[in-house]
Amino acid sequence: MVEDLSQQHRLIGDLFHWPETPEEWEPYWLSDDQLAFYETNGYVTGIPILTEEQCDALCEELEPLFDPKHPGNSLFHEYHSNESDSPDTVLFHALGAWRVTPGFHDILWNPAFLAPASQLLGGAVRFWHDQLFCKPAHHGGVVAWHQDYSYWTRTKPLGHLTCWIGLDPSTKDNGAVHYIPGSHRWDLLPITGLAGDMQAINEVLSPEQRATFEKPAVVELKRGHCSFHHPLMIHGSFENRTAGPRRATVINAMRDGVHSDSPEPLLQGVPPVQPGEKVDGQFFPLLFDPKTVGK
After folding, report:
1. Who contacts 78 (Cβ-Cβ below 8 Å, separation ≥6)?
2. Residue 218: what are its φ and ψ, rounded to 5°?
């Protein structure tokens, strides 16, 4: 039996260091130019968030999780050995790794994530959920064009943020994330599917919106670097055509104060939070309040 690490709302290992002074936090804040770029385009990228050693440790923890018989498998909110419907287009996708292994637990308290997240959210950072997205070598699995918030409307108001972290270098050839700059200003679109068909979104786009897909921004990242994007940002990733894997972990956060808008559980296996009540508790811990470091 694996301990459910969601009961621990603090660093439990030594993979990350918690800064003790405002000076120690200083290297992690985004610049004014980076914040302005996010405001204009809906994303900001190329931010170092993990060292090589931290990437190695997380990849070591990740490997056993690919086995559906892993003893911690029941702790995942969702687990898909292959999110697509074809063995030729594998996309491993799982929610809840922070409950299973210490490294994926502690990455939530990584200051290199928390400082930028608090700036982009405009306040204290509360955890929403994590994800693993992994594409094996020479596989056609894709993450189809979508807006994250289209899957999150059970929480209100829209005060969310996504951090996409490459555990491998992310390139155009191995399935890097693509963004449609400025699409964070669009209205919420209907869900058209997360895996399998990159063109499905065309069914819900206007001709003007469709034209913007001719020149998406390809977010190529060094290993251990990340991109942050707005919850309405249209994004997706194509197949992995290379001889190596493309592994990534995603941290989804929300501004403290977001409330439930559904009587149903917000995540599988989690007690319901009644509509109008603030999202908090064991599965949605407060990660960081910038006021505590004078920011």
Report:
1. 93, 94, 95, 96, 268
2. -90, 120
Q: Which residues contact 213 (CB under 8 A, 6 or more apart)?
A: 145, 180, 205
Contact 243, 256 (CB under 8 A): no
* Token duo for residue 261: 């808008």
The residue to which tokens 């005060």 are assigned: 159
Separation of alpha carbons 266 and 282, rounded Å:
13
**Residue 95's beta-bridge partner residues?**
78
The candidate with the shortest Cα–Cα distance to 110, out of 219, 281, 3, 226, is: 226
Question: Where in the chain are the domains?
Answer: 33-269
Over residues 91-133, the pLDDT tens digits come to 999 999 999 999 999 999 999 999 999 999 999 999 999 999 9
For domain 33-269, give the CATH number: 2.60.120.620
| pTM, to two decimals | 0.97
User: pLDDT per residue over 255-278, tens digit each?
Assistant: 999 999 999 999 999 999 999 999
Q: Report helix, strand and coil shares of the chain as percent, to nearest 5.
A: 30, 25, 50
Task: Tell me the Ramachandran region of residue 243: left when phi exceeds 0, alpha when psi lies from -120 to 50, beta otherwise.
Answer: alpha
DSSP state of 216: P
Cα 233 to Cα 93: distance, rounded to the nearest angstrom: 20
Give, for 209, the enclosing helix (H) or strand (E): helix 207-211
The alpha-carbon radius of gyration of the chain (Å, integer) is 18
**Residue 212 CA: distances (Å) to CA of 19, 181, 185, 202, 217:** 42, 8, 13, 11, 10
Q: Are 189 and 147 in contact (CB under 8 A)?
A: yes
Contacts 24+ apart (CB under 8 A), 206-213: 209/183, 212/180, 212/182, 212/183, 213/145, 213/180
For residue 30, the 8-state DSSP code is P
